[in-house]
């Protein structure tokens, strides 16, 4: 436990610098992009030079870039993300409204991809070179090559338009008045297609990693010794081969969190899911730099937290991890 706490403390210190780099880098990149919120507002509603000057002063766009960066960092120290120029509301409130939807989508897709991918990888790697191993390996490679947005559109056409088994998009039925379990069931039905579109891509990755890890584990001395002792093949597969092949997947789980979050932007746009991804699209369309910075910051914090949890889980599964840091 002490070793895990020391590892957590070191990771937290490093995470502060990571978040600072993300904030400053994102701010400079967004400022370098052509156009701003005033340009987007004038294009959509119209206005004269006086209105343009008034809006730039109201939103602080008449200040220098360094001044705005310094003001933004000072506001972050007070946990103030500012106001959205598109929604005219506090950014923290807007993000906290959309965040649960994205967490549900990411969590469900991660559970699907990691759980089913690991199980299929164990099934394929239990007998390397067999027909099922070759079939699953080729199928996973083909699935991993499919773009997420294309898979989402195919699922919509087949299951929502042609068969009409599932809703086309959204997170729940509008103005349904459902509460409690009935509302949870309605949300679950609406999430079937977006979770499948997002999860199946990474399912193929976990399947291939598990299969490759098991193929490597079969050649290890401890597995050969277990086979020489006459242990049942099922026990060897689950207790020795799969257990050791699972450790790299735990590491990949943290690394894929950022890609999963990026993939949710596309999937939420395809299925009209009101999460952070859809909000980021709206912020880009409105040139709402403060809102987009807030989304990037929340996303970075989410990825950092997930990787911290993965590091702790890995330290528990493999006592060798962090031992050098704990003794330093």
Mind explaining what this structure looks like?
- It is found in: Cell membrane.
- One of its GO terms (cellular component) is plasma membrane.
- Pfam families: BPD_transp_1, BPD_transp_1_N.
- It is a multi-pass membrane protein.
- There is one protein chain.
- With 328 residues, the chain is mostly helical.
- It has a domain of 176 residues: MetI-like fold (Orthogonal Bundle), CATH 1.10.3720.
- It has 13 helices and no strands.
- Helix 10 packs antiparallel against helix 12.
- The protein is globular.
- The two termini are 16 Å apart.
- The model has no long low-confidence stretch (mean pLDDT 79).
Please describe the topology of this protein.
Blueprint: H1 2-32, H2 37-45, H3 49-58, H4 65-77, H5 91-125, H6 131-144, H7 148-162, H8 180-217, H9 221-228, H10 233-271, H11 276-285, H12 289-317, H13 323-327
Helix pairs in contact: 1-12, 5-6, 5-8, 5-10, 6-8, 7-8, 7-10, 8-10, 9-10, 10-11, 10-12, 11-12
């Amino acid at each position: 436990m002490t070793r895990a706490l020391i590892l957590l403390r070191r990771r937290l210190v490093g995470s502060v610098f990571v978040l600072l780099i993300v904030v400053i880098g994102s701010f400079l990149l967004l400022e370098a992009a052509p156009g701003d919120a005033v340009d987007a507002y004038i294009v959509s509603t119209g206005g004269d030079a006086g209105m343009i000057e008034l809006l730039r002063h109201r939103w602080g766009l008449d200040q220098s870039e360094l001044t705005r960066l310094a003001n933004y960092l000072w506001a972050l120290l007070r946990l103030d993300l500012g106001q959205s120029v598109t929604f005219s509301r506090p950014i923290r409130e807007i993000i906290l409204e959309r965040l649960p939807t994205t967490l549900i989508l990411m969590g469900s897709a991660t559970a699907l991809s990691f759980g089913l991918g690991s199980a299929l990888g164990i099934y394929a790697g239990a007998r390397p070179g067999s027909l099922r191993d070759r079939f699953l390996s080729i199928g996973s490679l083909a699935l991993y090559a499919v773009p997420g947005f294309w898979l989402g559109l195919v699922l919509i056409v087949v299951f929502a338009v042609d068969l009409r088994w599932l809703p086309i998009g959204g997170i729940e039925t509008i103005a349904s008045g459902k509460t409690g379990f009935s509302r949870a069931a309605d949300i679950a039905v609406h999430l079937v297609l977006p979770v499948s579109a997002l999860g199946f891509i990474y399912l193929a990755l976990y399947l291939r990693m598990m299969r490759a890890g098991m193929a490597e584990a079969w050649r290890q001395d401890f597995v050969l010794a277990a086979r020489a002792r006459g242990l049942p093949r099922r026990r060897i597969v689950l207790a020795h081969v799969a257990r050791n092949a699972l450790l790299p997947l735990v590491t990949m789980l943290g690394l894929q969190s950022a890609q999963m979050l990026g993939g949710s932007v596309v999937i939420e746009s395809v299925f009209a899911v009101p999460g952070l991804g859809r909000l980021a699209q709206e912020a880009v369309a409105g040139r709402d730099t403060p809102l987009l910075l807030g989304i990037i910051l929340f996303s970075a914090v989410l990825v950092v937290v997930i990787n911290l949890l993965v590091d702790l889980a890995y330290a528990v599964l493999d006592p060798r991890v962090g031992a050098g840091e704990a003794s330093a």
